[in-house]
UniProtKB/TrEMBL annotation:
SMART domains: AAA. GO terms for molecular function: ABC-type putrescine transporter activity; ATP binding; ATP hydrolysis activity. The complex is composed of two ATP-binding proteins (PotA), two transmembrane proteins (PotB and PotC) and a solute-binding protein (PotD). Pfam families: ABC_tran, TOBE_2. Keywords: ATP-binding, Cell inner membrane, Cell membrane, Membrane, Nucleotide-binding, Translocase, Transport. It catalyses: ATP + H2O + polyamine-[polyamine-binding protein]Side 1 = ADP + phosphate + polyamineSide 2 + [polyamine-binding protein]Side 1. Part of the ABC transporter complex PotABCD involved in spermidine/putrescine import. Responsible for energy coupling to the transport system. GO terms for cellular component: ATP-binding cassette (ABC) transporter complex. SUPFAM superfamilies: MOP-like, P-loop containing nucleoside triphosphate hydrolases. Belongs to the ABC transporter superfamily. Spermidine/putrescine importer (TC 3.A.1.11.1) family. This is Spermidine/putrescine import ATP-binding protein PotA. Its EC number is 7.6.2.11. Residues 33-263 form the ABC transporter domain. The gene is potA.
C-alpha cells in the first residue's frame, strides 16, 4: 500500500498550479451543497444516519467507505433519485425538496455501459443538449469543446464498441459534462478500469475539474483514489461520517481507530497512559514491551487505555538489537518482508508474543542487489516523539 497516495502529492506537482483552496476553513464562506441532519431509512434499516455535511463550490469532494456504508445513497439523494426520510439538502442555497432530478444543477456520470451503442461519440455527447433544444451551431461548438476537454477529438465519429474501456469512460464523462452542470456526481467512475488506466484517468479528471471549476463529488471505496483526486474526503461508516478532512489530515491525524485502520497501513499499539504534561504524553505498551513518549497532548487521563497509531514509514528499522532499549525503541526479529518495488515492508516480531509485530517501510531508493536486512535478523525499531497519534476511540 503506497503512502498517502503518491498521487495527491503529484497532484500539486503535475497538475495546473493549484491555488490555496480551503473554503471549509473560512467561517464566512457559503457552502454550495449542504446536507442538514439528513436521515434515510429503507423500512427499518437506516442507511444514512442524521448526517450533516457542507461542500463548497469548486471542491473535489470524495465520499469514501466500505460496502453498504451509505455513500451511494447520499449521492442518489443529492441527484434526486431518492428522497431523505428526514432533514434537508440544499444546493446553491435552494432546498431540493420536491425538485426532480432533471431540474437540479447536478448531473450524474454513469458507467460507460450506459452509452447509446448505436450512436457515435459525438451523438452521445450531443444527446442531452438536443433534448434541451439547444441550437445546432451551439451543440456543435459544445461537442467540439467536450471532445477537446476529454482528449477524444480523433474519435468523434466512432461508435462506443470501437473504443477502449478508458476512451468509453471519457465519452461518459464528456456526456455528463456537456450540459455544464454546477455539480458533477461520479459513482465509482473508474471501477471498471485497470490500475494503470485508472491512475491516468484520475489525473485527467483532476485536470478537467481544474479547468471547468465545477464542483465534483465522487463516491469510491478505493482510498488511494480518494486520496489522489480529492480536496477533502468524508470517511463513512454505517451511515455516519467518521471524519471529514483533507487527504493529508486524514492520513497523518486520523481521529479514530476506525479511520486510522481504514486509510493506508498502520501500526495500532494498545497502550496505557502513564503520565502527561504540557510537553506530551508517556504511555506503557505491555504487548510490545516498551514505553512510548509522544509529543502529543491529549484530553485522555492517566490510567486510560488508548491506541497509539503509527504509520510504517515512521518506524525506523536498524540491524542489530539494542541491549538497553530506550524509550520509543524496541528489539525485534524480522519475520516477513514484502518487496513492493518502490518500498519494502518489514514485519518484525516484537518480544515473545508471536502475534505481536510492527511494520516498517523502507523506500528502495537504490537498486540494491543485496538487501541489508533479511529474515530472522535481530533488529531495533525506533521512532520519534511525533511519529504517531494517540487515539481514544
Ligand atoms: N432501495 C433500497 N431498499 C432497501 N435497502 C437499500 C436500498 N438502497 C440501499 N439500501 C441499503 O442501504 C445501505 C447503504 O447502501 P448504499 O448503496 O448507499 O451503500 P454504498 O456505501 O454505496 O455501498 P457499495 O459500495 O456496496 O455500493 C445498504 O445496506 C443497502 O443494502
Amino acid at each position: 500500500m503506497a503512502g498517502p497516495g503518491g498521487g495527491y502529492l503529484a497532484k500539486k506537482a503535475i497538475g495546473p498550479v493549484r491555488r490555496t483552496f480551503t473554503p471549509w476553513e473560512d467561517s464566512t464562506a457559503t457552502p454550495f451543497i449542504e446536507f442538514q441532519n439528513v436521515t434515510k431509512r429503507f423500512g427499518d434499516f437506516t442507511a444514512v444516519d442524521n448526517l450533516s455535511l457542507k461542500i463548497y463550490e469548486r471542491e473535489f469532494f470524495a465520499l469514501l467507505g466500505g460496502s453498504g456504508c451509505g455513500k451511494t445513497t447520499m449521492m442518489r439523494m443529492l441527484a434526486g433519485f431518492e428522497t431523505p426520510t428526514e432533514g434537508s439538502i440544499l444546493i446553491d442555497g435552494q432546498d431540493m425538496h420536491g425538485v426532480p432530478p432533471y431540474k437540479r444543477p447536478a448531473n450524474m456520470m454513469f458507467q460507460s455501459y450506459a452509452l447509446f451503442p448505436h450512436m457515435s461519440v459525438e451523438a452521445n455527447i450531443a444527446f442531452g443538449l438536443k433534448q434541451d433544444r439547444m441550437s445546432k451551431a451551439d451543440i456543435a461548438a459544445r461537442v467540439t469543446e467536450m471532445l477537446r476537454l476529454t482528449k477524444l477529438e480523433a474519435f468523434g465519429k466512432r461508435k462506443p464498441h470501437q473504443l477502449s474501456g478508458g476512451q468509453r469512460q471519457r465519452v461518459a464523462l464528456a456526456r455528463a459534462l456537456a450540459k455544464k452542470p454546477k455539480v458533477l456526481l461520479l459513482d465509482e467512475p473508474l471501477g471498471a478500469l485497470d490500475r494503470k488506466l485508472r491512475e491516468e484517468t484520475q489525473f485527467e479528471l483532476m485536470n478537467i475539474q481544474e479547468e471547468l471549476k465545477t464542483t465534483f463529488l465522487i463516491v469510491t471505496h478505493d482510498q488511494e483514489e480518494a486520496m489522489t483526486v480529492a480536496d477533502r474526503i468524508a470517511v463513512m461508516d454505517a451511515g455516519k461520517i467518521m471524519q471529514c478532512a483533507t487527504p493529508s489530515e486524514i492520513y497523518e491525524t486520523p481521529n479514530s481507530k476506525f479511520v486510522a485502520d481504514f486509510i493506508g497501513d498502520i501500526n495500532l499499539i494498545e497502550a496505557r497512559v502513564v503520565s502527561k504534561s504540557e510537553d506530551g504524553t508517556i504511555m506503557d505498551a505491555p504487548r510490545i514491551g516498551c514505553r512510548i513518549d509522544s509529543s502529543q497532548t491529549t484530553t485522555v487521563s492517566v490510567g486510560d487505555t488508548v491506541w497509539y497509531a503509527m504509520r510504517p514509514e515512521k518506524v525506523r528499522i536498524e540491524l542489530g538489537e539494542t541491549e538497553t532499549p530506550e524509550i520509543n525503541q524496541v528489539g525485534a526479529e524480522v519475520w516477513d518482508i514484502a518487496y513492493l518495488g518502490d518500498v519494502s515492508i518489514f514485519h518484525s516480531r516484537v518480544g515473545e508474543a508471536e502475534e505481536t509485530s510492527l511494520r516498517s517501510t523502507i523506500a528502495n531508493v537504490t537498486r540494491l542487489v543485496e538487501r541489508p536486512l533479511t529474515w530472522e535478523d535481530r533488529v531495533t525499531l525506533s521512532w520519534g516523539r511525533d511519529a504517531g497519534v494517540i487515539l481514544s476511540k
